[in-house]
Amino acid sequence: MPEGKFCNKRPVNTEEDLKALLGDKGGNQYYEEMNSLEVDTDALWSTIEKTCQSRIRTWLEICAHCGMCADSCFLYRVNNRDPKQVPAYKIQSTLGEMVKRKGKVDNAFMQHCMEVAWSQCTCCNRCGMYCPHGIDMGVMFSYLRGLMYSQGFVPWELKIGSGMHRVYSAQMDVTTEDWVETCEWMEEETAEEWPGLTIPVDKVGADIMYTLNAREPKHYPEDLAEAAILFHLAGEDWTVPSEGWEQTSLAMFAGDWAACKMQVDKVYAAMERLKPKRMVGTECGHAHRATVIEGPYWAGREDGLPPVKCMHYVEWVAEALREGKIKIDPAKKIKEPCTLQDSCNYVRNHGLANFTREIMSYIAEDYREMTPNREHNYCCGGGGGFNGIGKYRAERNKALQTKRDQILATGATLVVAPCHNCWDAIRDLEEEYEIGIKWSFLKPLLIKMAIVPDHLKAADDE
Question: According to the model, what pLDDT value does residue 188 have?
Fold first, then answer.
């Protein structure tokens, strides 16, 4: 079966192949080759027979086509309520058809499935909350993505992202040496203002092992410094691993389940090696989902849990404020009207909405809820990999309209977004629609308003 140089059924496993794929700017050759990519229908059906088990088959059968999921989907709403954007239709016309046809599908069908799976669904699973039969559309679309990946029909950027995890054990080309050097650099950068601050690497038996999103050391190393400052302020005994520090999984967005397992195994190995009391992950929704919620199953852990207790960053911040480890100067609280973006992956899928509200009660004087909110909140518009796929940028920008309208309705001028994808989507929303808002992670806000004990102040500040 003809396969292209870039667009093929082979995972990207070498740095040479990864750099070659990166060199295909915008994926031009990749998508041209995709037009000729043949579907291995026998392999596709064999995979479905082995992996499409009773749960998904039952969901496909019991869907009553009642339409209850329609208005729950922000993509249906922003696309003029097109019936083809109803979640039930989207999955039945792709995965459902694939199963009905026993894998006997062609290139055009697979390209249609790719468009639906990555530009018409973010796997936010809001629709699943409203399905009277409890059908989990997020699981079904994730499963569809895995089938697509196995046949080579995956967006160019996500083929690269999956390859990054396979080659570098991170979603970006950050080597172990790069990472450790970044820790040393940020420690040096903060030394004058924060005497005694350290970023301990590979400390065994610490109370906290901190894990990150690779974008932070690659593009925003100040985020690592901010995390270190807050742990320092709180008096935490913490460390970062030299290997297994990357918590995210673009492989999950791509449907590359083998790479998902490789990634989470690295993080769990770090836990086993360093034996921390708990892990705290950075302000990232899908990183938490990949490592804490889905990860144990990819890793084959029978108890369905990571090796140690794991917390999202909002859980740690709420705890630090509640226990007085970090104290807020009332005069420095957020004065302007502000609102909060609920990350699908740790609010809807892990029930952490109360922690974020608890944080806002400490740091904001004029907090305004979006409508709807908490687990009912809409996706930011960029989740599930949507933010990063150039081929579907126009569709992604249109998808931002729901979040735009929610923010405008609050009258808020600042959006607190403790999640990388949400932060990106709201940044791009402002760039696209110019509604006059600011957006921020929690870390820089907390540092600005935290009371610094005298014994932690630099000499000039005393």
Answer: 95
Residues 166 and 201: their CA atoms lie apart, in Å, by 23
Average pLDDT score over residue span 189-215: 95
How many CB atoms sit inside 10 A of residue 459's CB? 7
Residue 345, φ and ψ in degrees, nearest 5? -75, -25
Strands (E), 176-217: 208-211
List of domains in the chain? 39-154 (1.10.1060), 191-322 (no CATH), 330-449 (3.40.50)
Contact yes or no for 4/36 (Cβ under 8 A): yes
- 67: pLDDT strictly greater than 90: no
Q: Is 94 helix (H, G, I), strand (E, B) or coil?
A: helix
Range 414-447 burial, b when 16+ CB lie within 10 A, else e: bbbbbbbbbbbbbbbbbeebeeebebbbbbebbe
In the DSSP assignment, the letter for residue 71 is: T
Query: Which stretches of 266-323 are assigned E, i.e. beta strand?
Result: 278-281, 309-312
pLDDT band at residue 460 using 50, 70 and 90 as cut-offs? low
On the question of pLDDT at 153 being above 60, the answer is yes
Average pLDDT of the chain?
95
pLDDT score recorded for residue 462: 52
Provide mean pLDDT across the span 129-155: 94
Alpha-carbon span 308 to 241, nearest angstrom: 14
Identify whether the C-beta of residue 141 lies closer than 8 Å to the C-beta of residue 73.
no
